[in-house]
Amino acid sequence: MTEIPEPLKVYQTIAEFANRQGVLDQKTQELISLAVAVTTRCDGCISIHSQAALKAGASREEIAAALAVAVSLNAGAAVVYSSHVMEAINQ
């Protein structure tokens, strides 16, 4: 087996910690992961977490709700940064 480069070991450790069952159930973790994947525009992540969310029991409606949260947060950030543009052009 190929040895994992040191910087990727850190990612692997974080991913293993995040994926442990504990406070959040698997379905909730996958819905969060899918929403984050959309906001970070990670095609591979979207593919993986879409299927994982369905496998964990998420309904189409729950997935749509998680995506709506992602869209809302992106829109909110765009509004905030739009105000920065307006401030910059008013100086």
UniProtKB/TrEMBL annotation:
Record-annotated Carboxymuconolactone decarboxylase-like domain positions: 6-87
EC number per UniProt: 1.11.1.15, 4.1.1.44
Molecular function as annotated in GO: 4-carboxymuconolactone decarboxylase activity; peroxiredoxin activity
Keyword Lyase: yes
Record carries keyword Lyase: yes
Superkingdom to which the source organism belongs: Bacteria
Keywords: Lyase, Oxidoreductase, Peroxidase, Plasmid
Coiled coil: none
PANTHER family: ALKYL HYDROPEROXIDE REDUCTASE AHPD, BLR3452 PROTEIN
Database matches in NCBIfam families: ahpD_dom (TIGR00778)
Record-given protein name: Alkyl hydroperoxide reductase AhpD
Source organism per UniProt: Klebsiella pneumoniae subsp. pneumoniae
Gene name of the record: ahpD
